[in-house]
Design a protein that fits this description.
Largest sheet: 5 strands, mixed
Shape: globular
Number of domains: 2
Distance between the termini: 20 Å
CATH superfamily of the largest domain: Periplasmic binding protein-like II
Radius of gyration: 23 Å
Oligomer: single chain
Strand order of the largest sheet: 10-7-11-6-12
Helix content: 25-40%
CATH class of the largest domain: Alpha Beta
Number of strands: 15
CATH architecture of the largest domain: 3-Layer(aba) Sandwich
Strand content: 5-15%
Length: 498
Amino acid sequence: MKITIGKKLIFLISAVVILSVCINLISGCDNKQPGSVNEPNIAANRPASETGETEEPESGPAHYVADYLPDVSYGGYEFRIVSTSSGLFADYPEFWADTTEETGETVNDAIYKRNRLIEERYDIVFKEISVNDWPELQPLFKKSVTAGSDDFDLCMLISREAWATALTGAIFPLKDLPYLDMSQPWYAHDVNSQISINGKYYFAYSDECLNMFGQTLCVLFNKKITEELALDNMYNLVKENKWTTDKFYEFAKAAAKDLDGDGKMTKDDRYGIHSRNDMFFPYFWVGSGLKTVGKDENDLLVFIGDNQRLYDILEKTYQNIWGGETVYLEDATGDLFENNLALFRVNDICSIARYRGMEMDFGILPFPKNDESQEKYYTRVIDGWINCVPGYAPNTERTSIIMEALAVEAKNYTVPAYYEVALRAKHARDDESLEMLDIIHATRTVDLGDTFYYEPVRSTFSSVIDAKKNTFASSVEKNTARIQKALDKANEAALLLD
């Protein structure tokens, strides 16, 4: 499906108008109950064919097949993807990258195999356009779309900037990419169900986006301290659905100890929990299945953070953070856990590699449930970098075919390499941690008020935590108008795109 010159001109005029109207949108981040799910189905324009299938080999992992993708050749077309592999993320393997050769490193070789397979199948050549650091990506994307320049086929954007950019009309909607099928197993269904607006999706998380799994949170625990204190088997608690926040705090309080006997807790003593502030406290409502931003019957954003259940969870979190000396929070990542000075460490999965050299064994857990009556575990995703299609998209059929091929072959090659081989074998210390990672991977979710709208939504609650004041309800009352204004802007922008 190609855009004619006339249509392209109309699009560019519209895009410029919408960009000027919406340029101040937040770049930060059905009558449904909080946490309800809309199953995405972005395959309406795909030619009728069989659904994607899973081929079960005689041995080894399943091989996934997107059998609805056509057998086409693009005559050596240079498929261009803008990303960053330098700056803050120079050492992260989770970002889209091309590799020029196999090196024996598991993830590198899986990416090499995936990319060469797709190049050969469709007669294309991947070209990675790398910028110096991530703040350059969104301006580059907007400038290219506004000018109508055919500079790239895909561009990686951090999710909150992808959202804000989409609401300016600069990102091509997924419904017009004919070969994307978000119902397939290589998509993150629960996470994707949260990121539509006005019935449309502008990007979606698939297994191609390894970074989203890297920025999924987990709980690490020190096995030596666990044994020393004769604590319950935490893996069994998870499997028996008894791994709750009460147990989490109970164990944390048992572990906290004034090691030097000076009568005060400092960073030289042992804590129950070590984490960063912004990683820690939002997990208690997200892990309980709550949302602060939901949707109305028209799939438009509404603030739902003014409710007693949320306040009860925040109150409990507040008391356990500031009501004792069991939790050590800091803005930057420290080394208490690595130095055996914390029973628990709450952090993202990509940070597990940091503890590769740790002498003491550790295990991996999902975040606990609020209580045993909770139906399932909910695993908080804090961010993710995702490939977006520029609004001019000169050949949406080709773009969608390559995107879907990247997703399915990521499930076949790069996810097993990163998750099942590199992450598991190098970092997880026992087989039960592998089972926990499976649970974490299967229960990922997001709250838009925690991610795309961390300002002004999450900040409404974090300001209370930081100030050590137990005034959540009054903070919500004070900030509701500001929050609603931000959501109204997003809704108005989405309606303009119809």
